[in-house]
Structures are given as structure tokens and as C-alpha cells.
Amino acid sequence: MRFDFEGMSPVARFEVLTGAVVPRPIALVTSLDAAGRLNAAPYSFFAPLAIDPPLLAIGVLPHPEGRLKDTGLNVLATGELVVNMVAGRLAEAMNLTCIDAPPGVDEAALAGLAVSPSERVAPPRLADSPVAFECRLHQAIEPGPDQAILLVRVLLVHVADACVIGGADSPAIDTPALDLIGSMHGARWYARTSDLFALDRPTWAEWIRKPGR
Ligand SMILES: Cc1cc2nc3c(=O)[nH]c(=O)nc-3n(C[C@H](O)[C@H](O)[C@H](O)COP(=O)(O)O)c2cc1C
Q: How many A from CA of 56 to the centre of ligand 1?
């Protein structure tokens, strides 16, 4: 089966992309509008893209009403946001924040998500999120009408103490302890990150010494 994207509708392309690129991490983004009202919404067109500068990318698709979604509007207006990662215990609340509420509705409050003040940016972070990235807009790309690809620079990261291992000299994230979930196919399937396996990265020097190669 071939899917020729040139002749397909955006909705059909969405089904293929989200059906095949899985699992996708979920950025539960908190932002403020120009009047200072809090907004929260999940985004799984989301990835870390660079470390120097440290950049995350978020894809804001068009709102069905034919406008930019509130997260896009807010980040373009204020330049600030927090990317909160989603643990399994937050799944239902996260899902509630995607509700198509009108601009100005605080979806964090609606979903019963408590907030804590951020240090470097004005939008608060979600208190129960195991990881929260305080970010500033680095560059916005407009791939088409009513859309935005937000490249955002990470300024500061909060990680729950219970999810940090190692001493004060060499702290590291205990990733399994984060219990993050990912977005899967369709609009309602999710994955846990508990089914893990490990592979060592190959090096050429070891490869050429392998007997029987
Ligand atoms: C798990 C999940 C992931 C989502 N990912 C995206 C995404 O990457 N881009 C997007 O435009 N909408 C995405 N949505 C839909 C938005 O969250 C939804 O349109 C929301 O109402 C936008 O809120 P806002 O207008 O307050 O930004 C996602 C929804 C869910 C539940």
C-alpha cells in the first residue's frame, strides 16, 4: 500500500502520520494570553531537536474554526511557555485539557491540575508533572495558514526529586520513575513507557575486531 501525500487531505495525512510515528511524547503546554490568563493544552507533534542551543519543537495544527490554536497565539504574543511532561497518573487530566474550550478558559483548573510558579518565565508549571521545561520562544515557523511550528529554547528544567538518581555531583534522571506516557494512533490511544529493552551502541573499532565477522 502506498500513501501519496500530494493527493491526500490534511485529515488523511494526519491519520497516516499519527498512526505510524509512535509513540509520541506529550508536551502539556502551559502559557498565558496577553491578558495574563492561563491556558493548558497537550501537544504530541513534539520533539527535542537541539542541545546547543537546547531546543524543543512543537507543531501547532490549525484550529477547526480556521484560526491558530490558543497555545500558538499565546506563545507568539508573550514568547514564554512551560512544557510539562505527562506521567500516567495525569493521563485523564491531560486528556481533559484538550477540550475545545473558548480562548480565556483555564484548562488546568478545569482538569484539577495544580500549578506552581515558574522561575524564569511568567506561565506557571504544573505542580504534579514530573518534568517541566521553562522555555522561551526561539523561532516560529509558519508552515501554512493558522499553524505554527514553535522552536522553543529550554531555560530551566524542574525534575521531581523522587525521579533523580546519583549524588549531588552527578545527578541523572531516573527515566522509568517518571512513568511518562506517549500518544499513539487515532485520537484516543496512549502507550506507557514501561516495556523497555537495552542495546549497546556499536563502534567501528569493536566491530572490526569481532571474530567471524
Ligand atoms: C494527546 C494529545 C496530543 C495532541 N497533540 C496536538 C498537536 O501536536 N498539535 C495540535 O495542534 N493539537 C494537538 N492536540 C489537540 C489540542 O490539544 C487541542 O486542539 C486543544 O484544544 C488545543 O488547545 P489550545 O487552543 O488551548 O492550544 C492534541 C491532543 C491530545 C489529547
A: 16
